[in-house]
């Protein structure tokens, strides 16, 4: 019976052998949160295209398919967007419930398109044919942003970038003592 165990150890590898040096077996670094999300989004979009009737191959994908995908995602949204006829339309904090639909938030869609745009090119797609960079997508995102801002009663205003930093200027205004002095470029 002992010879049977010995033969098994030799065939499967024995713990008495010295392990391989760590340098020969590189350990892959875990993906960042952004890279993981980008991969998950890319796989989801690929699955969406495969589920179309007839299925759509990635090289045949265009801005229309991307717009359909964004509209499809609305059913999984968690942002209440009041319709024009709703009594709460234009109120930032409505006092009660309503039957308006839940949608994907504009910021989520904007970030999703950014990740998919990058993933498309990382997966071999030519930048000039990137369906996520089409003008129709930018127009759609702008319309979603504006309609959601109106529905909440809060107009969207783009944040302005500071142009000239104030260096070593004494601050005598009590209200600005806690503000940041770095600039975005």
Account of the protein in words:
With 185 residues, the protein is mainly alpha-helical. The chain is 41% helix and 2% strand. Strands 1-2 form a two-stranded antiparallel sheet. The C terminus is likely disordered. The longest helix is centred in the first third of the chain and has 19 residues. The protein has five helices and two strands, in the order αααββαα. It is globular, with a radius of gyration of 27 Å. It has a domain of 126 residues: DNA polymerase, domain 1 (Orthogonal Bundle). Belongs to the plant homeotic and developmental regulators ALOG protein family. Keywords: Developmental protein, DNA-binding, Nucleus, Transcription, Transcription regulation. It holds the Pfam family ALOG_dom. This is ALOG domain-containing protein. One of its GO terms (molecular function) is DNA binding.
Short descriptors:
185 residues; mainly alpha; DNA polymerase, domain 1; two-stranded antiparallel sheet; globular
Task: Give a topology summary.
Elements: H1 2-12, H2 33-51, H3 63-73, E1 79-80, E2 102-103, H4 106-122, H5 135-152
Entry summary:
This protein is mainly α. The chain contains five helices and two strands; from the N terminus they run αααββαα.
CATH topology of the domain at 31-156: DNA polymerase, domain 1
Q: What is the CATH C-level name of the domain at 31-156? A: Mainly Alpha
> How is the quaternary structure best described?
single chain
Give a short account of the largest sheet: 2 strands, antiparallel
Mean pLDDT: 80
Low-confidence stretches: 5-16, 172-185
The number of distinct β-strands equals 2
| Broad structural category | mainly alpha
Distance between the termini: 75 Å
CATH architectural designation of the domain at 31-156:
Orthogonal Bundle
Overall geometry = globular
H/E element sequence: HHHEEHH
Strand content: under 5%
Protein name: ALOG domain-containing protein
Organism: Ficus carica
Pfam family, one: ALOG_dom
Biased composition (Basic and acidic residues): 1-11
């Amino acid at each position: 019976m002992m010879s049977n165990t010995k033969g098994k150890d030799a065939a499967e590898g024995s713990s008495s052998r010295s392990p391989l040096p760590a340098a020969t077996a590189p350990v892959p670094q875990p993906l960042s949160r952004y890279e993981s999300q980008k991969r998950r989004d890319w796989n989801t979009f690929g699955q969406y295209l495969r589920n179309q009737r007839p299925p759509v191959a990635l090289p045949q994908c265009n801005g229309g398919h991307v717009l359909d995908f964004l509209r499809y995602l609305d059913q999984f949204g968690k942002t209440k967007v009041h319709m024009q006829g709703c009594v709460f339309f234009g109120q930032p904090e409505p006092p009660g419930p309503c039957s308006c639909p839940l949608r994907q938030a504009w910021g989520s869609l904007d970030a999703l398109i950014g990740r998919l745009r990058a993933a498309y090119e990382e997966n071999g797609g030519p930048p000039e044919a990137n369906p996520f960079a089409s003008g129709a997508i930018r127009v759609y995102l702008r319309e979603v942003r504006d309609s959601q801002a109106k529905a909440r009663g809060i107009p969207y205003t783009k944040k302005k970038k500071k142009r000239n930093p104030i260096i070593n200027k004494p601050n005598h205004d009590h209200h600005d003592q806690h503000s940041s002095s770095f600039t975005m470029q």
